[in-house]
Amino acid sequence: MVSNTCYIICEDNNDYRESLVAFLEEDPELICCGAFPHAQDILNIVTTHQPDIVLMDIDMPGKNGIDALKEIKQFNPAIEVIMLTIFEDRENVFEAICSGASGYLLKNSSPETIAASIKEVMKGGAAMTPVIARKALQFFQKPSKKEGTFQLTIQEQQVLKLLVDGLSYKMIAAKMNVVMDTVRYHIKKIYDKLHVHSAPEAVAKAIRDRLI
Amino acid sequence: MVSNTCYIICEDNNDYRESLVAFLEEDPELICCGAFPHAQDILNIVTTHQPDIVLMDIDMPGKNGIDALKEIKQFNPAIEVIMLTIFEDRENVFEAICSGASGYLLKNSSPETIAASIKEVMKGGAAMTPVIARKALQFFQKPSKKEGTFQLTIQEQQVLKLLVDGLSYKMIAAKMNVVMDTVRYHIKKIYDKLHVHSAPEAVAKAIRDRLI
DNA sequence: ATAACTTTTACATGATGATGTAGTGCTTTA
DNA sequence: TAAAGCACTACATCATCATGTAAAAGTTAT
């Protein structure tokens, strides 16, 4: 069973686009069903050409590749998108990944790598160079106790966790087998340490700073 | 300039551990400075053997690999850790990545792949099979409006955002140029839609489901 | 245009939360 | 051992929140 993959490419550099397509033509599994110097009308493009996968440049005149990516994913999440770009800064990588890109390759990648990446993505994998992967991972490696966990005691951490889970003072007290006043005591100290003055604030801070 | 890499391995399967080490011995750049069938005393191990990188199994008798990973990273974030395991479920991958693993490989990876991964990590990259990478990426591809944004109206979204920012009803009312009762009205509806009964709960849900 | 719905406002009330003061008991440290 | 610090408890008070009912005002649809 031969499964061919139909791809389109949006890339404003004519030389790069054409030579990449020319290379990929060599591979019988990869079928180019469209090559465009922009992503202007991306939704029309994908409805018309029905690609399995889109190779998308970021920096293009008119609509940029990340906005195009968002439109595609909103329109049909089943369409895979690999970003193909010269930018490898945190912001672009983060934006692209969060918006649903299945891969992020630099343009200086070899065409062989790009071909292999397309196939990996079609097999349910993600395509990234190791350095990009590292950047991606760093996004959710908790900088948690970056400020030293705010020095919360065990009980305070426990109370905070239960607070984040939406429990009332009364319920927290029950869970911890203490009296409500004890819970108040701990919560006051939590507020002081987190520099907040209400439960919603504390919860937001706890989650965002990954204290819990 | 030859830069040798010193690694240790924690892996309870003797055959696997020994054959992997034997293979890696072939590579003059990779120096095994310790091989252990457990991670029991991991902090002592790393202080004694000073590895650049640790290959860590997850399922081991005594201390599991993820806990060991956490200890290592807390002790010295400069030590790279590659998880080497048979588990590729969401939870383990997520835990490992969040705890600072620089790589996550399956044990059925070829030893050549493992050797290459060690070198990639030492060059500042991350080591993951494409499928693992895909799982990792999915963690922060916003499932945002997975349940249809909970159908919050514009005002409700606005109120929710301000609530998450820690504002009181009074402050929210002022910001939105409405009376406090209006804020109450919206908040009640938000609670109904989110199936919660308090501000902390709403805030937690909003942040976790990326509604804001 | 009228019914149906949404948004805004008002009023009321019981529950919960935020904060302060203070006393007891236990552990740590000088 | 005395001082200091932390955890727990108690009591008090005012503010804020959660919820309900209800009535204008504005919108949408038939």
What's this, in brief?
Chain A has a six-stranded parallel sheet, sandwiched between helices. Chain A has helices at 14-25, 42-49, 65-75, 90-98, 111-122, 130-139, 154-164, 169-176, 180-194, 199-208; strands at residues 5-10, 30-36, 53-56, 80-85, 103-106, 127-128. Helix content of chain A is 50%, strand content 14%.
Description:
Two copies of one chain form a homodimer. The first copy, chain A, has a six-stranded parallel β-sheet, sandwiched between helices. The first copy, chain A, is of the alpha/beta class and 212 residues long. Chain A folds into two domains: 137 residues, Rossmann fold (3-Layer(aba) Sandwich); 64 residues, Orthogonal Bundle (Arc Repressor Mutant, subunit A), CATH 1.10.10.10. Helix content of chain A is 50%, strand content 14%. Chain A starts with a strand and ends with a helix. The longest helix of chain A is centred in the C-terminal third of the chain and has 15 residues. Chain A contains ten helices and six strands, in the order βαβαβαβαβαβααααα. The model of chain A has no long low-confidence stretch (mean pLDDT 91). Chain A is elongated and about 75 Å long. In chain A, helix 7 packs across helix 10. The interface between A and B is large, with 41 and 41 residues. Chain B binds a DNA duplex (30 and 30 nucleotides) through helix 9.
